[in-house]
Amino acid sequence: MKVYFAGSIRGGRDDAHLYYQIIAILSEYGAVLTEHVGNPDLAVFGEDDLSDREIHDRDLKWLFESNVLIAEVSHPSLGVGYEIRCAIERSMPVLCLYRPSEGKKLSAMISGCPNLQVAKYQSIEEIMAIVKMFFTQYTTISK
Ligand code: 6K6
Question: Which residue among 1, 71, 73, 129 has the highest number of C-beta atoms inside a 10 angstrom radius?
Fold first, then answer.
């Protein structure tokens, strides 16, 4: 099982510590190809070894090697939205984790998309249960 985790980078790193925790949960189910997304030291304007073109091409290669895409979408990110669309075009299972908060509303292009699952959560325990259910569904369908 290869898992692509998507979370905001240049969109803002407010949830970086949460991404780190989610990646630890996902690692129990398979290899997470994008562990760097949860690295709290990766800043919005951090030093990059790779050009933007190299990042784009490498990440899409990893995405298309993966069995599933799991995205944390509470913090809006153009890159995450783009990755979600790319995964849908390849008919990959997509799970979006969303933490509702006052004064914010998830983009209708995500909440209104019939080709993905949006799961709302407020705690890490809820994420654990959501992820467990998602992988149970995935293994049942792919048998
Ligand atoms: C370091 C500091 C700033 O940028 C970097 C290196 N950039 C990236 N490295 C790896 N993956 C990236 C990078 N920029 C975007 N991505 C991919 O897009 C990740 O897989 C994330 O899921 C998503 C984040 O998009 P933005 O628009 O929030 O950056």
Answer: 71
